[in-house]
Design a protein that fits this description.
single chain; 18% helix; five-stranded mixed β-sheet; alpha+beta
């Protein structure tokens, strides 16, 4: 029996060691609090700069990002020249620090430019280069009209024009449709003119007429001439042709097309609409009316033609465009930032359907705050007022939309106040506010203690929460998301303490992920809510996400792994004990004998 006891003890010890080893392998380490990595002390280096450019009308839209690399940027120098003459500088602009975008105006359209920007600090300078070809809208428009005229087939009926002068007059009238684009027919040159001969019973094979012509087109200071175009004068007895007051309209505007039928007895008009110049299209109206009202409810390009008495008119092209919606206002979410903290300029463009809504930000005057702007991220290092300009290129029908904002830079708050500061609260308005959390999942109530103004809260979308967790290297599989809240502050308001009551999570470990306005984030240690209440002491957080560790980690991690060792070991104990007991029984029988 003593052998049985010894064997059992040895196996028990082995089982205990194996279980401890298994638990050690499967215990998940607590997620360490997120901290920014400490920067190494290095000597200042010349700044780095990246330049991007886009084409504007006779202009270049430039923006850049720069890093001072340990020494504040003292300013920028921008130079530009033609790409085919890089050694001949045609312009130079000095730009003060803090400005990160500029529009170069008065450039030559359709010509490639090389643009360079040099960033300077006390350690040196760095240059970035970009090539931009400014738009020439007049040249582009006239070129498009010229190409379309040269590709079209011109056929004139002899009853409309059959002399050199009447042909010139007709062509000027026919191509006046391009006045919708601001293109004018400056001159019509007719050459090699041959009039059409009328078809008669005596001369049924009379020859049609023909001629060649050149059009000189003009828009602004751009003037182009078409190639020499061959055209025909039709001498058929019957013809249908269309006319309209305009050939380009906005959605919803009235568009009426009129048909004229010559030498046709059956005056039933069949109107067709087609998407291209080659398709037959679909019938949209058939009546004895020689006019047709065309639907303009959708933007696009389409063709209209009419068939009367078996004779078809040429197809005429029409364009329906969306009306231009100008920017009416830009609203900035805050007019206060904190010194030393990088903050994103969040804005809204009105109306929501404005044709152009992309904002370029620039610092007009840093007010001695040593402000820097990179894209939408602004950083100021001293208290004061920074003047910022928002520009929407082509935000108005006749140019850019601009608006000036004055942003107050406040001192960075600290939790370590002197005794005098603590005792003297006469200038500080501190109040506690409880919010309605009915629209926020998982949170029953939220109380915020704030000073110098009010704080509001809003729910955070699931997509935003998932993005923040991913950026914080937090696996969604490890946590259950209780809820998330975004804080919106009035000017100078500071939130100090929060008290949240959580729905149904009393007794379970939870953690708080807080994100500040400058993008820094921290994950709290695990704690158990008492009566469902959890306290936070982050100063003025931007977003707070509550997380609950999933319980199935212990069940699916430690227990199954330990079970793999425990069950075979327990089975071994039972088998060995059975063998030893059986052997001990045999010995007793021998003694009895």
């Amino acid at each position: 029996m003593s052998r049985f006891i010894k064997a059992t003890a040895v196996i028990t010890v082995l089982i205990f060691i194996a279980t401890c080893f298994c638990c050690a392998l499967n215990t998940d380490d607590d997620m360490s609090q997120l901290k920014p990595s400490s920067a190494k002390n290095t000597e200042p280096a010349p700044p780095t700069v990246e330049l991007t450019g886009a084409s504007g009308d006779y202009s270049a839209l430039l923006s850049w990002t720069a890093s001072d690399n340990g020494a504040l940027i003292e300013g920028y120098e921008l130079t530009y020249c033609y790409a085919d003459s890089p050694d001949n500088e045609i312009g130079r602009v000095e730009i003060r620090p803090g400005v990160n975008s500029i529009t170069l105006s008065g450039l030559s359209g359709g010509i490639e430019h090389i643009i360079k920007i040099t960033a300077k600090n006390s350690a040196g300078s760095t240059t970035a280069t970009v090539t931009v070809t400014p738009n020439d809208p007049d040249l582009a428009t006239v070129t498009a009209v010229k190409n379309e005229i040269e590709a079209s087939v011109v056929a004139i009926h002899m009853n409309l024009a059959n002399t050199k002068d009447t042909v010139a007059s007709y062509l000027s009238s026919y191509f006046s449709r391009y006045s919708e684009y601001g293109v004018r027919i400056k001159d019509v040159v007719i050459t090699d003119f041959h009039a059409a001969q009328p078809v008669t019973a005596e001369d049924p094979d009379a020859a049609p007429g023909e001629f060649t012509f050149i059009l000189e087109l003009e828009k602004g200071d751009v003037s182009l001439t078409t190639r020499r175009i061959n055209a025909e004068i039709d001498n058929k007895t019957s013809i249908v042709y269309l006319s309209a007051d305009r050939f380009s309209v906005m959605t919803g505007e009235k568009l009426t097309v009129k048909a004229t039928a010559l030498d046709i007895k059956d005056k039933t008009y069949y109107w067709y609409s087609t998407a291209s110049d080659n398709d037959k299209g679909s019938l949209i109206q058939s009546s004895e009316s020689d006019t047709c009202d065309i639907k303009t409810d959708k933007p696009g390009v389409f063709y209209i033609y009419c068939v009367c008495g078996g004779v078809s008119s040429p197809k005429i092209k029409f364009t329906v465009s969306e009306p231009f919606v100008a920017v009416s206002d830009i609203e900035l979410s805050t007019d206060t930032i904190t010194a030393g903290e990088a903050e994103i300029l969040r804005s809204t463009v009105y109306p929501s359907n404005a044709a152009n809504k992309n904002i370029l930000w620039s610092i007009e005057n840093d007010g001695g705050c040593l402000a820097e702007l990179s894209g939408r991220t602004i950083t100021a290092y001293k208290p004061g007022t920074v003047t910022v300009k928002a520009t929407v290129n082509n935000g108005l029908s006749d140019g850019d939309y601009e608006k000036i904002f004055y942003i107050t830079v406040k001192e960075k708050s600290t939790d370590h106040k002197t005794t005098d500061e603590t005792e003297d609260a006469s200038d500080t308005d501190i109040k506690e506010t409880e919010f309605d959390c009915a629209k926020i999942n998982g949170i029953e109530s939220l109380t915020v203690t704030a000073e110098n103004g009010a704080v509001q809260i809003t729910p955070v979308t699931e997509e935003t929460v998932k993005r923040i967790l991913s950026e914080s290297n937090i696996e969604e599989t490890e946590y259950e998301i209780i809820g998330a809240v975004k804080f919106v502050y009035e000017k100078n308001a500071i939130a100090h303490e929060t008290q949240m009551k959580i729905k149904g999570y009393d007794g379970k470990y939870v953690r708080i992920l807080s994100i500040n306005s400058n993008g820094s984030r921290a994950l709290s240690e695990k704690e158990k809510p008492v009566n469902g209440i959890i306290h936070g002491n982050a100063v003025s957080p931007d977003t707070v996400i509550l997380l609950c560790e999933k319980e199935d980690k212990d069940a699916s991690g430690v227990f199954p792994a330990a079970l793999i060792l425990v069950i075979p070991a327990a089975a071994a104990v039972i088998i060995i004990a059975y063998i030893m007991i059986k052997e001990d029984g045999k010995k007793k029988k021998r003694r009895v004998k």
